[in-house]
Structure formats: structure tokens, C-alpha cells
Amino acid sequence: MRARTELTGRVIFQGEPGYEEARKNWDPHTDRYPKVFVFARRTQDVANGIRWARENDIPIRARSGRHALEGNLSQVNGGIVIDVSDMNSIRLDKKNGTVVVGTGNRVGRIANALARQGFIAPFGDSPTVGIGGITLGGGIGPLQRTIGLISDNLIELEMVDANGDIIIANERQHSDLLWASRGGGGGNFGIYTRYKFSVRRAPVRATVYRIAWPWEQFEEVLMAWQRWAPSVNTRLGSELTIGPKRGGNVMMEGLFLGSRCEAVRLLRPITSIGTPTERLIRSLPYRQAVNFLLPPDPVLTQRYSNQFSSGFGREPFPRQALKPMREFLEQVEGEDAGFFFLNWGGAVSRVAPEATAFYWRDASFYVEWNSSWTVPSEAARNIEVVRKTRRKLQPYIVGSYINVPDQGIKDSGPVYYGANYSRLRQIKAKYDPRNVFRNPQSIKPAKRD
Ligand SMILES: Cc1cc2nc3c(=O)[nH]c(=O)nc-3n(C[C@H](O)[C@H](O)[C@H](O)COP(=O)(O)OP(=O)(O)OC[C@H]3O[C@@H](n4cnc5c(N)ncnc54)[C@H](O)[C@@H]3O)c2cc1C
To answer: Whose CA is closest to 252, among 230, 227, 225?
Structure first.
């Protein structure tokens, strides 16, 4: 039977001009050879893409900011990629404290646009991550202890379902879909085209900081950070990165929504550790503070492939956990390889685990680690070292963050979603019973009675 629906939007088939650029994700390891890319300009283009794919029996992937960290998530061989990145409007309603954004926006673009107008929007550590993907998985970053996860601020959404029908979800209608979209992860229920967030006034100034230590001091710094960061004033967000032994260092960055003087005092328990090689604590107009924390992160020229794994620490890592960390850091290479920690608590932990799909609320910190490579023949070795380290750290972590997935995790549903997994499966069965939107670790529809 001939397909009835025509593709609309900016359509690029394999072999046509623009195809090679279209298939470049941030991580080259996730690039695939889809049959066609549709760059949607409006919601109807998304609906047409989904209908066309179903009529032609072609697998579908949604894409926004191209920052997927595992394979077969935002691209698939022979499939259709419905890319929303041209849908990037931003409409701030100052009176009602809301912003409506196209899901094709990048996090940094929104954070900057709002900061220019005196409003605050949560962000992570890269300006080019797509709001489309990051929101659905949760959205963590240094402001989360004050204003929650990105998804905690989501109050309405527009999504195109597997039939090509447009659904608006908020607290009054399709509230189950809103619940599932706050942490249930991308690529599960449909293709999202618009988000509405609640926003609040930004402070006039904020204090940013960056403290660095020699790599050799990572154990001392981490032990102190774990005791300090989860309980420090909740207006202070702290990211701790520990690079590879070869060429890396220890760096703590973040911001405090308050004065420099108070920040200096709050940071003292950690700045007094070891012998820092850099010690920058600076009060900036809020807009400049955003720029400080979101340095450029170009997508098309990023050349490292990565394997990540992630989890949450409820208790500080004991001394025994530092051994596998050290072994890992001695083996890995690459600019961004290593460990990353982010402090938990405050607004994130005030929300009950079952209140949204994002379950891991009661942790002390988030942790991820990654190994990277540029030569494809080195992929297997690097992937294995990350997964081996997960096995060794398993006694000290719970769960895993769906936005930083690891396809080596078996039976991953409860690992990503804890006790929320069964409700997510029910909602999946309601909105996508035929499992049209699926990827290697997507939510399986609950079986009908
Ligand atoms: C350099 C870098 C820094 C990062 N920093 C942070 C951070 O600080 N905090 C944090 O929380 N996460 C961070 N992440 C992880 C990031 O949140 C995830 O990779 C996220 O999924 C990326 O979303 P995207 O839209 O850019 O990616 P894409 O590759 O476009 O999509 C990723 C996933 O989301 C799905 N998806 C995307 N758009 C839609 C849509 N419109 N509708 C339905 N599904 C969709 C895709 O199908 C895919 O499964 C970072 C990732 C990278 C590479």
C-alpha cells in the first residue's frame, strides 16, 4: 500500500546535501546512518513525520540538542530522525512568571535569554545540551538546590503521540503524562514540541567560584567535599571534577546565590584542604555568572567518543571506594574523562520520590564517570573500564541517571526509575501501547489485563 502522508519541514534523505552534518551528534560514537532527517519547523511537521514513519514501518527517533550519551537514542540506522532544533522560540511572560519554549532550544540559549531579562532558569554544565532531552530525564545542575531540577519547573507540555495526534498535558489534563515527562526520559511517550516552565526573578548578582588542586590530592579533597557539599547552605551548588592521572587535576566549580563574603566563609571547609593551585571566588552580575558556568561547548567539532555511567550516593564514599576510583583514573585518558560529583539536597530533596518520575531524591550527591577515545578501535577497552568500575562501585551507589545512561545496565527500569517504574509502564501503555517509541533501554508498556 502506498504511503499517504508526505514529509514536511526541512527534509534530508541519505545521500542528499547536508546529510553528513545532520548526522553529527556531540558524541561521534552515537552517530548512525538514518534513512532521513526531518527538521521540523512546526508541530504539524512532527505529526507528519510520525505518520509517514508508521505507514512505511520505519523506526523513529526524536532529537533536540544532539547530546545523547549512548547509541541508538537520537539516531538509528535506516530510521527517521525527527529533529526539533529549528523550533526554538522563547516567550517569557513576566507577569505570570512563565516561559514557553520550543523544545529545539539549547539550555544556554534559554538561560541567557532569561538572565538578560532578569529571570533565572536552571541549567547544567554545557550550554549546548538540548532542552528537549535534558528536561525529560530530569535536568541536574548547580542551581538545583535552590530551584529544583529543570523538570521540577515544567508545568505544561505539547507532545505528538504515536498516532500523530497533538496532546497538551498540564495539571488539569493528561496530568499522568506531565508526571511521566518530569524524569521519565526522552524517546518514550512521543515527540515533544513545546514546554512551559515556571520561572522566577534572578538575583542582581551571584558569586561564582573555581578552585583547583593537583591530581594527587583528589582523595583528600573528595573526602572533605563529601562531608561538606551535601549539607552546605542550599543556595550553593558545587560540581567536583576529578580528571585522569595523566594530565588531569581536581576542580570544583559552582555558584552561590549570595555575597562573595558569605561564599568565602561557606567555602572555607574545602578551600582549606590541600594546596589549591587556583582559587577564584568572584561576585558577578547574574548574567555574567551564567556565562562563567556555561563556557562554549560546540557540538559539531567535539571529537571525543565517550562511555559514561552514573549513580547517586546516599552516604559518603568510604575509603575502600577510592581504590577503584584511583585504578580507573590511572587508566583513562582524554580531555573530559574522569569523575564528576554534584551536591544534592535542598529543593531537589524536598520533592517526594513519587511526586514526579524522577525518583532519586534522597541522595547526598550525584556521581558520574566517563572514559573517552578518538580511535574507534579503542572503544571496547574504554567501555569495559567504565562498566568494570560500575561493578566495583556498586556497593556505594544507588540507581542511575537516565540522562547519563549506560546500556551495560541490565533490567535497567528500576535502576533508572526506582519504585516509579511500574507507574511509568502503565503510562507508557496508555500513550504508546504499541511501543512505537522505543530504544535499547526505553520503558516497556505494562501488559494489559
Ligand atoms: C557535554 C554534555 C554535558 C551534559 N551536562 C548535563 C548536565 O549538566 N545536566 C544534565 O542533567 N544532563 C547533562 N547532560 C546529559 C543530557 O541531559 C542528556 O544527554 C540529554 O538527553 C541530552 O538532550 P539533547 O536534547 O541534547 O540530546 P538528543 O541527542 O537530541 O536526545 C537525547 C534523548 O532525548 C530524546 N529526545 C530529545 N528531544 C526529544 C523530544 N523533543 N521529544 C522526545 N524525546 C526527545 C532523544 O530521543 C534521546 O533519547 C550532558 C550531556 C553532555 C553531552
So the answer is: 225
- Which pLDDT score, from 0 to 100, does residue 3 have? 61
26 lines ligand 1 (CB under 6 A): yes
pLDDT at 126 over 90: yes
The count of residues in the chain is 449
Radius of gyration of the chain measured on its C-alpha atoms: 21
Give residue 334's pLDDT band: very low, low, confident or very high (50, 70, 90).
confident
Residue 1 pLDDT > 90: no
Q: Which helix (H) or strand (E) holds 146?
A: helix 144-147
Determine the pLDDT at residue 89.
98
For ligand 1, is residue 183 a contact (CB within 6 Å)? no
pTM above 0.85, yes or no: yes
Query: What CATH class does 205-396 carry?
Result: alpha beta
Using alpha carbons, list the distances in angstroms from residue 232 to 50, 235, 295, 449: 47, 8, 25, 49
| pLDDT tens-digit readout, 149-159 | 999 999 999 99
Provide the grid cell at 241.
571534577
219 phi-psi bin (left φ>0, alpha ψ -120 to 50, beta other): alpha
Kindly give the interhelix angle for 218-228 and 260-271, rounded to the nearest 10 degrees. Answer: 130
CA of 449 from ligand 1 middle (Å) equals 34
- The CA distance from 101 to 139, in Å, is 16
**What's the CATH code, domain 90-202+419-431?**
3.30.465.10
pLDDT reported for residue 335 = 77
Domain ranges of the chain: 10-83, 90-202+419-431, 205-396
* CATH no., domain 10-83: 3.30.43.10
User: CB of 84 closer than 6 A to ligand 1?
Assistant: yes
Beta carbon of 99 within 6 Å of any ligand 1 atom: no
